[in-house]
Amino acid sequence: MNFPFFIARRYLFSKKSTNAINVISAISVLGVAVATTALVVTLSVFNGFSDLVASLFTAFDPQLQITPTEGKTAPADDPVLTDIRNLPQVEVATECVEDQALAVYKGQQAMVTVKGVDDNFDQLTHIRRILLPDDGDFQLHAADMQYGILGVRLAEQLGTGYRFDEPLQIYAPRREGQLDMSDPADGFTQDELYSPGVLFSVMQSKYDKNYILTSIGFARRIFDQQGMISSLELRLKPGSDFDRTKAQIKQMAGSSYRVLDRYEQQDETFRIMKIEKLIAYIFLTFILMVACFNIIGSLSMLIIDKRDDVMTLRNLGATDRQITQVFLFEGRMISAIGAVIGIVLGLLLCWIQQTFGVIALGRSQGSFIVDAYPVSVHPEDVAVIFITVLAVGFLAVWYPVRYFSKRLLE
């Protein structure tokens, strides 16, 4: 057995001549454990919110979205897009035309994003899961009548309800020609959308407050984009290797198109959440450093208490380096024990929150998307926390131990 480690272990668990040293050592372990628990719980809550947002986006966003790198639209019959559609891994391919417009209903106005899609959009995404009411049907048109499915918050803003009794007027700027200031209305293309009797609710303001789903024919007509698409959206066959297929599509698309998965489609949202998680990790690490100062106090008192033992060890042949390592190991063991206790306690608290939802988001049930704080434990976070605690504990005691040991051994 390693000699310095053996002596350090005896010192950690043996009774000291001064009882205060045992108390300070226990406080040191407790401080590290509390800081570690805070890291585990906080990062797991951030993971929970990130996973929750990802699960909500998947009801509306496709697995893969292909958009032009230059301009808003690309030819629908581009050979590159045709080859991508024909890949054996692709199960559903949907053409989309998306742009900004003005919606008017009974005097109420709102700037909206009109997204025109193919009839197979319900096969591409889980749109049927987020329709209101639950028994509503997904329809984009019937004969020559064009339907518009509004986000639930947009419907509230315009006052349409689930089924609007008058056509929804859509205005889009003309792409060509000059604006006649004597007749500003001539600078817009106007058309009507009718209610299919359903709304959608993604529970994300970006969609629920701004989007209208309709047929791609209507969108092409009002935005004057005949034969064009703003994106090609794909769903792969079950069992396909997603990463390999995405890499293959990116190679086929070259520099002309961007190939985005669900996370990349919402890159800004997830980047903000990652930054918030990183900042929380940094701040809690600083708190951990403060907690580790208790270890310095504990070790300094231990060094003084064991002055006679140090002399005995030197007489028995222990080198100054080995004696210094004894106290370094002591500090590392305190950090390691605190880290293990903190991780176990943090995982226990996360399990309790996941199972019972002890800490609620609001006083009344149903006020938020979920009733309790979501928690998701990622193994890589636990590993990073454990390494962080050990590293901070080691750095915190390295210089003080070397300084006090050198003074003691002079």
Which characteristics define this entry?
two-stranded antiparallel ribbon; 13 helices; 410 residues; eleven-stranded mixed sheet; alpha+beta; elongated; 18% strand
Write a concise synopsis of the structure shown.
By secondary structure, the protein is of the alpha+beta class.
Describe the structure.
- This protein is α+β, with helices and mostly antiparallel strands and 410 residues long.
- Helices cover 51% and strands 18% of the residues.
- The chain is built from 13 helices and 15 strands.
- Strands 1, 3, 4, 5, 8, 9, 10, 11, 12, 14 and 15 form an eleven-stranded mixed β-sheet that branches.
- Strand 6 (141-142) and strand 7 form a beta hairpin.
- The relative contact order is 0.19.
- Given the C-alpha coordinates, what overall shape results? elongated
Element pattern in H and E: HHEEHEEHEEEEHEEEHEHEEHEHHHHH
Number of helices, where a helix is a run of at least 4 consecutive DSSP H or I residues: 13
| Low-pLDDT sequence parts | none
What is the mean pLDDT?
86
Largest sheet: 11 strands, mixed
Strand proportion, as a percent range, falls in 15-25%
The N- and C-terminal alpha carbons lie at a distance of: 28 Å
Number of strands: 15
Helix content: 40-55%
Q: Which class do the helix and strand fractions yield?
A: alpha+beta
Radius of gyration: 32 Å
